[in-house]
Design a protein that fits this description.
The structure holds two protein chains of two kinds. Chain A has two domains: about 70 residues, Beta-grasp domain (Ubiquitin-like (UB roll), Roll); about 70 residues, DNA polymerase, domain 1, CATH 1.10.150. Chain A contains five helices and five strands. Chain A has a five-stranded mixed beta sheet, with helices on both faces. In chain A, strand 3 and strand 4 form a beta hairpin. The longest helix of chain B has 28 residues. Chain B starts with 12 loop residues before the first helix and ends with a helix. In chain B, a hairpin with a 5-residue loop joins strand 14 and strand 15. By secondary structure, chain B is an alpha+beta fold. Chain B has three domains: about 200 residues, Aldehyde oxidase/xanthine dehydrogenase, a/b hammerhead (Aldehyde Oxidoreductase, domain 3); about 220 residues, Aldehyde Oxidoreductase, domain 4 (2-Layer Sandwich); about 150 residues, Aldehyde oxidase/xanthine dehydrogenase, molybdopterin binding domain (Aldehyde Oxidoreductase, domain 4), CATH 3.30.365. In chain B, helix 15 crosses helix 16. Classes of the chains: A alpha+beta, B alpha+beta. The interface between A and B is large, with 49 and 54 residues.
């Protein structure tokens, strides 16, 4: 097997292809080949969730997903959430409004899992939300305001407001 | 108009939510060479030789450098201000790479390669020949005669010992009828676990070295790199971009000196050092494990008559911040619970463990765990309710510490406790939980703390600031006190806008990135100092800029400077507050005036010669499953007096993060070592047991706002305080629930199993079989 392989995939709505090292992780490919620097490296062994992206709608730690496995997949990163004129999506805005961001390093991964949660179109309980978000580590926020941001957005998408 | 005191969104929020904020690795030059470090796999040894031939033969490897190649210069790493007093300088006890290996993970060689894989293969291909030495991991064993010696100049491994005597302890304890409450309290080695690991890259440009690094303290790093390389400090330029958290680990020179030196060894080409998570745990810094021995003598009425405190601080292999941490811990006791007769001693001791440095709380989470555990035991010993016992003995209103000059101006402790008790419904729950006798037992507990703001008078406190009026009427502001995630830039913007009379904090352009070539000298982010110290230079520099603006406005409008002011971004008449010119018009007029053009800027330094007490408490409610030896935190409430809040939303967020860290400290986090080899056993995020989303209840943050009189904005420390009192509050809640006093943290199921067995709450079948 050659050390390099062409990987065709769709990233943030665009069909793309690049030659990648077969040993490279999807994190490496997204950061180094496509300059998608929202994909962060915090452990590179699938513990922290900072590199999380959506692959065919499902959240994955891209650091433990080989780049070559992305062949034919639809991949979404945080860069793909913004509108053409830099408009933020509701969940990104909620992270700002609820002070759910501090150093910002875990933020992109968290937001992508939040997208997966929101797209499930389900009104989860707090315990369910905590479990769904528990693949991400954050040392700044104690997770408190992140829960508020995700929960408020989940309710808004259902046409409801919620007080804390 | 008040801009300070409002819940404003972070000025860096948009970029961070959009994922476009650039951290050091996002700015990496494409041609950077990879430096991988060979870490010793011995706890204590002398490197006899390193065979580099196999590594050098690997395609892609550019250079291999070992501990035999580095300059013969020892340097300090602590992120302390430089001291003009040589006796007060930090201990210089390590080289860029070390032949004398002092802990498992010490740095002995590097491989520089043009790709990551070759660099990693190169490190694996190195053959290191060691002469093994006996090692010691325990702090008190390291002090014994005949223990393995780490540094020749420090007999019995004692880096420093200091003590304090108040009154006459020996005489005081002879008083008849005193009750003695004695305990040993043990705190663990923990790590900061910022989600961005430390890393940096370095290159030479015009004969100077630039290092772009994930640090909290760029100006101090410049000095340390200069020292380590034996180069004039101005040969070094440090650039600090946004960083993914620090919590004190990055208040130390980590790999910047090594990275800078590596660049000089490959002709000034760009080289990068990126710590893995495993390296971050072991080869950066950790929080000191401190062992305390406390003896408290009580009168029958609960008043503390005398107290003796001994603290043994496990420094690990190198001095880093050294003795300052345990000295701060020891110094907390007599202020927290003043008593006339005290004897305190503290020792900082080298051991063959990872290097301990600054970590959020700087000795106070350790001291608080020991002090507040002992205080609850004291309350029990005299049959008093723990909050009542604290009210009786805690630092009273009007208390003054002669060393720092700090004064407890308000009756803050009692205010904080009253508020916390009311919110969590303390008195009622105390009664209700007392009846629990089944397998699940509920308990409620509290703990208090105090914290200093900044480092005066122990070290220099200085802050500089530069402001510039832009042509659109906005103001650019720059200082050396760094944004590390806590939200410093946003509160600087609020304070600047307020001090100058701008319309909004959004009219302040904070230059977040520090570059030591251009940023006014500041000391960085540590000691919960930024908001307090920057407040002085912001107010002073804003006044200088305002004077210049009004001067020019007077020239432009003919209205006397005494009659005009700045309000909502306009020059206004003082009399009727009518705008006579906008700041934008003024700036344009000043800049493009063909006769008298002026670029309106101001810059100044302020030397802070004050400190401020920050106070607070935690109330915790727990459910303990006796058979499963598990503790569930049901509710946790922190109340803080950090003076006037500049931005309540950011303040709450700070408290949440600190509470989270305190829960981990109390229940799950610790770095453990193999007793046989000294090897760290759980240096990864999974086995270390960092708290996850599932391990917390709702975090409740409250404030008492007593404005701090020494601060121009009424503010004082908040960054570190929330990490101080959570663990002992949980410990005391477990004591309340079960009657078992646990004198070590983290209080995980292993610890509870042993303690509950001892207390007869559960049967240990294995023990019976024996």
């Amino acid at each position: 097997m050659s050390q390099y392989k062409v990987v065709h995939c769709n990233i943030n709505g665009k069909d793309v292809e690049k030659v990648v090292d077969v040993r490279a992780s999807l994190t490496d490919m997204l950061r180094n080949e496509y300059h998608l620097t929202s994909v962060k490296k915090g452990c590179e062994v699938g513990e922290c969730g900072a590199c999380n992206v959506l692959i065919d709608g499902e959240a994955f730690n891209s650091c433990i997903y080989l780049a070559v496995w992305a062949e034919g997949k639809h991949i979404r990163t945080l860069e793909g959430l913004m509108g053409p004129n830099g408009e933020l999506s509701d969940i990104q805005q909620a992270f700002i409004d609820e002070t759910a961001i501090q150093c910002g390093f875990c933020t992109p991964g968290f937001i992508m899992t939040a997208v997966e949660i929101l797209e499930a179109d389900t009104l989860y309980t707090d315990d369910e939300l905590r479990k769904l978000l528990s693949g991400h580590l954050c040392r700044c926020t104690g997770y408190e305001n992140i829960l508020r941001a995700v929960k408020k957005t989940m309710y808004r998408r259902q046409g409801k407001e919620i007080d804390f | 108009m008040n801009i300070v005191g409002k819940r404003e969104a972070r000025i860096d929020g948009y970029d961070k939510a959009a994922g476009r904020t650039k951290y050091y690795e996002d700015q990496m030059p494409a041609d950077a060479l990879y430096v991988r470090i060979k870490h010793a796999e011995k706890a204590h040894a002398i490197v006899k030789s390193i065979d580099t031939s196999a590594a050098q033969a690997i395609p892609g490897v550019v250079r291999v450098l070992t501990c035999f190649d580095v300059p013969d210069i020892s340097f300090p790493t602590a992120g302390h201000p430089w001291s003009m007093d040589p006796a007060h300088c930090d201990v210089a006890d390590r080289k860029l790479l070390n032949t004398h290996v002092r802990y498992w993970g010490d740095d002995v060689a590097v491989v520089i390669a043009d790709n990551e894989v070759a660099a990693a293969q190169g490190v694996r291909a190195l053959t290191v020949e060691y002469e093994e030495l006996p090692f010691v991991l325990d702090v008190q064993k390291a002090m014994e005669d005949g223990a393995p010696q780490l540094h020749e100049e420090f007999p019995n491994n004692i880096l420093k010992h200091t003590g304090m005597r108040l009154g006459d302890y020996e005489a005081a304890v002879k008083e008849k009828g005193l009750i003695k409450v004695e305990g040993w309290y043990e705190t663990p080695t923990v790590q900061h676990c910022h989600i961005e690991n430390h890393g940096c890259f370095a290159y030479e440009e015009n004969g100077r070295i630039t290092v772009v690094t994930s640090t909290q303290i760029p100006h101090i790093i410049r000095r340390v790199v200069g020292q380590a390389l034996g180069r004039p400090w101005s040969d070094i330029r440090i650039v600090k971009p946004y960083i993914g958290g620090g919590f004190g680990n990055k208040q130390d020179a980590l790999y910047e000196p090594l990275c800078a030196w590596c660049s000089t060894q490959v002709g000034g080409r760009c080289v990068r050092i990126d710590c893995s998570r495993e390296e971050t745990f072991v080869s950066n810094r950790v929080r000191h494990a401190i062992r305390f021995h406390i003896t408290t003598w009580l009168r029958q009425d609960g008043v503390i008559a005398a107290r003796k405190v001994e603290c043994f601080s496990n420094q690990g292999a190198y001095a880093s911040h050294g003795h300052s941490i345990v000295a701060k811990a020891m110094g907390s006791f007599h202020q927290h619970y003043p008593c006339p007769n005290m004897e305190s001693d503290c020792y900082t001791v080298y051991t063959n463990r990872p290097v301990a440095g600054a970590m959020r709380g700087y000795g106070m989470p350790q001291a608080s765990f020991a002090d507040e555990s002992n205080i609850d035991d004291c309350a029990r010993a005299v049959g008093m309710e723990p909050m009542e016992f604290r009210r009786l003995n805690i630092m009273p209103q009007g208390y003054k510490d002669d060393f720092s000059g700090n004064v407890n101006y308000n009756d803050t402790y009692r205010e904080c406790m009253a508020k916390g008790a009311q919110i969590i419904d303390y008195e009622r729950k105390l009664k209700e939980f007392a009846n629990d006798s089944g397998n699940i037992r509920r308990g409620i507990g509290l703990a208090t703390f105090w914290y200093n703001t900044a480092v005066y008078p122990i070290a220099l406190e200085t802050t500089s600031n530069r402001m510039q009026l832009n042509l659109d009427g906005t103001v650019t502001m720059q200082c050396g006190e760094t944004e590390i995630g806590q939200g410093a830039d946003t509160v600087y913007a609020q304070m600047t806008a307020q001090a100058l009379g701008l319309k909004s904090y959004r009219d302040v352009r904070v230059i977040s990135c520090q570059d030591t070539d251009i940023t006014p000298t500041g000391l960085g982010a540590y000691a919960s100092r930024q908001t307090y110290v920057a407040g002085f230079s912001i107010k002073q520099t804003a006044q200088l800029l305002k004077d210049k603006i009004l001067q020019y406005a007077c020239e432009a409008t003919g209205v006397a400077t005494t009659e005009i002011d700045i309000e909502d971004g306009n020059i206004v008449r003082k009399d009727d507050r009518q705008p006579i010119m906008s700041l934008s018009e003024l700036a344009m007029t000043a800049q493009y005036n063909p006769v008298h053009s002026e670029h309106l800027t101001a810059e100044s330094t302020f030397t802070i010669r004050s400190n401020a007490y920050s106070f607070g408490c935690t109330f915790a409610e727990v459910e303990v499953d006796i058979e499963m030896c598990k503790t569930k935190v049901v509710r946790i409430v922190n109340v803080h007096d950090c003076g006037s809040l500049i931005n309540p939303a950011l303040a709450e967020a700070q408290v949440h993060g600190g509470m989270s860290m305190a829960i981990g400290y109390g229940l799950s986090e610790q770095l453990i070592f193999d007793e046989k080899t000294g090897r760290p056993l759980n240096n990864n995020l999974l086995d270390y047991k960092l708290s996850t989303f599932m391990d917390h209840p709702k975090l409740e943050a409250y404030f008492i706002e007593n404005p701090e009189p020494t601060s121009p904005f009424g503010t004082k420390a908040l960054g570190e305080p929330p990490a101080c009192s959570g663990a002992p509050a949980i410990r005391n809640a477990i004591l309340n629930a079960t009657g078992v006093a646990i004198n070590r943290n983290p209080i995980n199921p292993h610890v509870l199993f042993a303690e509950f067995s001892k207390a007869g709450l559960i049967n240990d079948p294995w023990k019976e079989e024996k």
